[in-house]
Amino acid sequence: MPEIRSAFETRYDVGRHPADAEPGVTFRELVDWDLVQVAAWRGRIDELRERVESTLGVAAPREPNRCAGHDGIEVLTVAPQRLWCLGPAGDRRLAQLVGVGEDTGCVTQLGHSHARVRLGGRSVRRLLAQEAAIDLDPEPFPSGAIARTSFHHAPVMVQCIDAEAGTFDLYLTRTFAASTWEYLLDLATAYGYEILERSSAAASP
Amino acid sequence: MAEQNARLEAGGRIDRSERRTFTFDGQTYTGCAGDTVASALLANGVHLVGRSFKLHRPRGIVSAGVEEPNALITLRTGGRSEPNVQATMADLWDGLAAVSQNRWPSLKFDAMAVNSLFARFMPAGFYYKTFMGPTRGSWMFYEPAIRKAAGLGTPTREADPDRYEREHAFCDVLVVGAGPAGIAAALAAGRAGSRVLVVEQMAHAGGLLLAEPADSEAEAWRVERLAELEALPNVQVMTRTTAFGVYDGNVIGALERAWDHVAEAPRGQPRQRFWMIHAGHIVHATGATERPLLFGNNDRPGVMLAHAARTYLNHYGVLPGRRAVVYANNDSAYAAAEDLRTAGAEVTVVDARPQPGAEAAARATGIDVLTGGRIEHVAGAHRVRSADVRHAGGDARLECDLVCVAGGWSPNVHLASHLGHRPEYRADVGAFVPGALPDGQSAAGAVVGDLASADTVTAGWRSGAAAAGADEARAPFGAPAVAAALGHVRPDSQGSAPRKHRGMVFVDLQNDVKDSDVELAWREGYRSVEHLKRYTTLGMGTDQGRTSNINGLTLMAGLRGEDIPATGTTTFRPPFTPVSLGALSGRRIGPHFRPERRTPMHDWHVEQGAHFVRAGAWLRPWYYPAHGADADTAYVAEMRNVREAVGMTDVSTLGKIDVQGPDAPEFLNRVYVNGWLKLPVGKARYGVMLRDDGFVLDDGTTSRISETQYFMTTTTAEAGPVMSWLEYLLETAWPDLRVHVTSVSDQWAGLAVAGPKSRHVLEAALPGVDVSDETVPPMGVRDDETDDGLPVRVLRVSFSGERAYEVYTPSGYGRTLLERVHSAGQPHGLEPYGLEALSAMRIEKGHPAGPELDGRTTLDDLGLGRMARTAKPFVGDVLRHRPAVADENRRRLVGLQPENTNDCLRPGALVFPEGQAVEGHGIGHVTSVTYSPTLGHYIALALVEGGATHEGETVNAVSLVHGEHTRVRVVPTVFLDPEGERIHA
Questions:
Q1: Three-state SS for B610?
Q2: Residue range of the domain that includes B645
Q3: Which terminus in chain B has less CB density within 10 A, N or C?
Q4: Which residues of B touch A174 (CB under 8 A)?
């Protein structure tokens, strides 16, 4: 199987920047993951959701803009009648979603449409606040919350992985990803940052 | 001059042990940590700090804050140089370099001071009357000289090396202003558990309390309350941060001067930061600004606001004068008088009222008080030296070196008015206060006219508690024991009409607007305050009339014979104070000025040295330098290679939309003009979409992947609009259709492989994928994967006119796909080609593209009318039949070629019939042009009235921009291979 190339393949300089300072923000690209969109026909979302839950073994959130996960699978309520299902690349549970409900909705492969970056560090909220008009405090944006926004006119989805630890995932649309990545690193210069080795979502803290 | 000869040995909040050395106009001085440039200059006895805008009169420091109209200096040098900085707001750091402005050759001896001699010929608006002749063009003759003489300060032309940032903040309660009311409001909300943000424009919180002595009870109150605020984890106090605008949704714009108070920000830190604060509730605790009183030569250095004098004395430890006249119409000035006397100055108070208030009178022990008095004018040039006074007891000339003016207080209503809520006049305080505020905003303290400290604290506390949804019980602490209430103003103390003074009477110091200018405006009919402002420029300087607006409109009210409320105020708009463009830009500069959209194959193009062109946010390869020194030579070579061998080009930028659902065929049938119900699985079709109004929206190729799934492509430019359009139709027009559309533009990378050898290349590059003509015929589509698992979608479609394929793969494999095709293509002579060659080839084939699909053309205009299936309804079908839209004489697509094959053609050239004068818009225009290496001459597509009815005729293509007239023949649009045989090569 050919290797999947990163959107910022030539711009991923692992290490601390500057080398002699404690970083305020950490970046780690998450790899080896897949994304499948499941969309319901009008009025059929409850039915489709049940089928997705039984296929994936995950209770999907009932509120909009939320994520719920179990055993390496995450289900996100990204829009009315649409769920995003994430998991390890090649996971058979995701593969089983194909045809999960042809009479209730449809499935679209989106595993290559985004780059996913995990951010952490004591200054991560300050960094994100430079672009995201989102209240990132733990109470309004708890663990599992997601929000679609834009970073300097490029679409970005923000997911709170751990509100207490201050860990967030950014989903950068693939063709904007390199430019947005470069911009984020520039913003992070104010705090010092570290680029960590790439890893899978399951392996990343 | 003795160093810091005006600095008191004790008192103030500056740190005398930490000295600062600075220069002003090249002269070296010293100051202390905690000084501003203004306080340090005053400490060194420097009162002359600038020259006025128009008349170049000597000017001194008037205030101690953001209302300063005179002391505008240029700070720093090189790329960091910043003109028009208020010396009263500029923190002093060691090594600071400041220069005065608007003078030549020096501040003391300014040649342009001669303007003052001609002041009577230079009233408001004089340039509209004096530079208008003798000819109509005379103004533009004088204008460069006037422009050169105008303005204050000179900006640098070097790049700014500093960093700026932008940031969002969220809070439950935003308190603007950290004076007593603001501090109380913040404590109330903070104690109630709200997230509180306090913004204060000065370097220290405290507001008017900073004018109180550093050893006073008021100071103890301030320190204690601030310590409590700092200890609350849910409260953040931001000093040196100015809230400059209130916007919809309770969003406030604020500018933080993060590291503006040092020579250079620490590495990586921003000099300034622009905050977008999203507040649940805003408490306006913006205080009030003191007003000056008017008299002759009231602009001389040494004339300053009484509260400013007290601030310099008690906050900065500077005695601004040793013989002071305090001219007042309210009690608050007596605190200044008392403190000046305590510090050792001789003080005389001139009170416009018959008698002062009781508390004020008590403070005047040992001070001469002249009641019922006014200053007629002052004498002195570079510093005031005497004041001529008329009072109840007669006339007097008072020798002085300082005149403190106290004309009352104007609440700072600006922010509270930004959303259009006009302020209201309160006659009892003689000032405008905020009008009714919208939900989610409140005001407290001096800004609403509460001029007594007890009132401000109570009101502030209540406001903060209410904002936090907490009990509004009385504050658990008392009010600071300030020296005096701000005091009530005698309403008529300013007088109603300009009196005859000796010396000029300035209303607006920064723009040199005199009381006679206000009268002139009234005489000439500019009587509304809005006209008064524009005609005289009163209130239009960088100080925005903070010390002049009320006096100006009071004068106008008197002239009009109306009361002040009837005269009204001008409109308050953001920004409250100037905001640097650097802060607004943040890091969106240089390479990050705008985001870039790069295909999954972008890095490969870069490695090949491709020259790129911007197509919206996309970077697309324009041409490859290996093929030629510039675009004109490279694309010709690239085209030839495609026509004769094989080329590859990155088509990842095309819009790609996944259309799925049992009603997908019907949906496509409605949005496209042609039929889609019978398209078999595994086949693609060219389609055109119209807008509702019958004009062409976009074209593209849509492939049927399964019974219920389609892969739609759009043009690069229309990907977003088409996606939005399809979603709109599904949501509003046809919500019953079981169809979902999803953008997959980022999911798929695409590579076009074109040329007679294209199939051979794909066979070699994609082992295991059947690309035979039987499996992938023209307009066939097939999903497959290579032997090693590379998934591909192969679509046989041609934009170039050659045998061609578009090969799609998930984006993460995009570069792999390209590298394999490139490698496999080498034995066949494969070369990449860019957008220029791509565009040229489609012109040869007569394909309409962006220049023709410009939103103003119809199906028939483009020669595509026969595509429309009249048996089925589709979007745009009704309105395309409107007479004007269906008119056969509309401009329709034709081909053009020059009669002389050596002539070149120009896009945008107008088409005229031969023999007709070149006037007006002609009968058409050229839309696309290229040099065709296949044909050996230029060719063009054009839209011409009547279209193909002109075939065979010779017309003129006239480029007015280039001054070229070219004889051209009208020909069919397809210049090459009209039978379409090459796609089977």
A1: coil
A2: 633-652+747-841
A3: N
A4: 600, 746-747, 811
